[in-house]
Automatic annotation (TrEMBL):
PANTHER family: ARGINASE/AGMATINASE, GUANIDINO ACID HYDROLASE, MITOCHONDRIAL. It comes from Thermotomaculum hydrothermale. Binds 2 manganese ions per subunit. Belongs to the arginase family. Agmatinase subfamily. Keywords: Hydrolase, Manganese, Metal-binding. The gene is speB. The keyword Membrane does not apply. This is Agmatinase. Transmembrane segments: none annotated. InterPro entries: Agmatinase-rel, Ureohydrolase, Ureohydrolase_dom_sf, Ureohydrolase_Mn_BS.
């Protein structure tokens, strides 16, 4: 089964969807490994047409769902290495990668691969949590440290965070000192310009738990769906080369509303890219 509207072959497809069923460091509730399969299944429940962007992803967009990358269980470093190698080939081919997690640590190898192909990369980060811990429970590789690990190679002035509402005092001090937490998308657009390559990572827990309960570390006080789409659509003129959708844990929300929300978000993000 592929995501609704997927072409049958990758040929001529500018956008490639890939699932990364990894939840090896989930510190509270896990199950993110089941997200990509559940997203494919539930994608059949919504339309391929987006009224907001006047685009039908089946008819107007050449995209290919390359299914899931097979990953070993119990070996975080090996899994990350496989994700990096696998995604690098898509970036080298000039395709726009749509990654479906998995836990947020998956974003580390995705951004690493993207950065190796696009050294002038900018990163836009939507999340409830800062993810900037130096280590978590003694581990340097964790969903709670992922953005700090990315800043081991990506300059902090090319890192733009939105809607963060949870973290340690140290993390908030870090964001203040490095001015990584942004409020106005238009200022970020002006700073990045229309040419520089941009990767967008979306931790789904940026949404309020009343909108999106299906995630392992819910944090009250979040945004609604339309605010998220509206903010992402302000980036439509940027050179987006990759985007990911992380931390859906479908078994936590058996209404499947959270999964459907990811499906719709993927469709609308294709609309954003098409609207350029
Ligand atoms: Mn996160």
């Amino acid at each position: 089964m592929r995501f609704m509207g997927s072409k049958k072959s990758i040929e001529n497809c500018k956008i490639v969807l890939r699932g990364y069923p990894f939840d090896g460091t989930a510190s509270f509730k896990s199950g993110q490994r089941f997200a990509p399969a559940d997203v494919r299944l539930n994608s059949e429940g919504i339309e391929t047409y987006s009224p907001l962007f006047d685009v039908d992803i089946e008819q107007d967009i050449n995209f290919y769902d390359a299914k899931d990358l097979s990953l070993p269980f119990g070996n975080t470093e090996k899994a990350l290495q496989l994700i990096e190698e696998d995604s690098k080939k898509y970036f080298e081919q000039g395709r726009i990668l749509f990654g479906i997690g998995g836990e947020h640590l998956v974003t580390l190898p995705l951004v690493k691969a993207c950065y190796s192909v696009y050294p002038d990369l900018h990163l836009i980060h939507f999340d409830a949590h800062a993810d900037l811990r130096e280590e978590y429970l003694g581990e340097k590789l964790s969903h709670a440290t992922v953005m700090r690990r990315i800043l081991d190679f990506l300059p902090a002035n090319r890192f733009h965070q939105f809607f963060i509402r949870s973290g340690t005092k140290d993390e908030f001090n870090f964001m203040k000192e490095n001015k990584t937490l942004k409020k106005n998308p238009e200022n970020v657009v002006r700073l990045i310009g229309e040419k520089a390559p941009v990767y967008i990572t979306i931790d789904m827990d940026v949404l309020d738990p009343s909108v999106f309960p299906g995630t392992g570390t819910p944090e009250p006080g979040g945004i609604d769906f339309n605010t998220l789409i509206d903010t992402i659509s302000r980036f439509k003129n940027l050179n987006i080369v990759g985007i990911d959708f992380m931390e859906l844990s479908p078994d936590i929300d058996n209404t499947e509303i959270s999964t459907i929300t990811v499906c719709k978000l993927i469709r609308e993000c294709m609309g954003v890219i098409h609207a350029k």
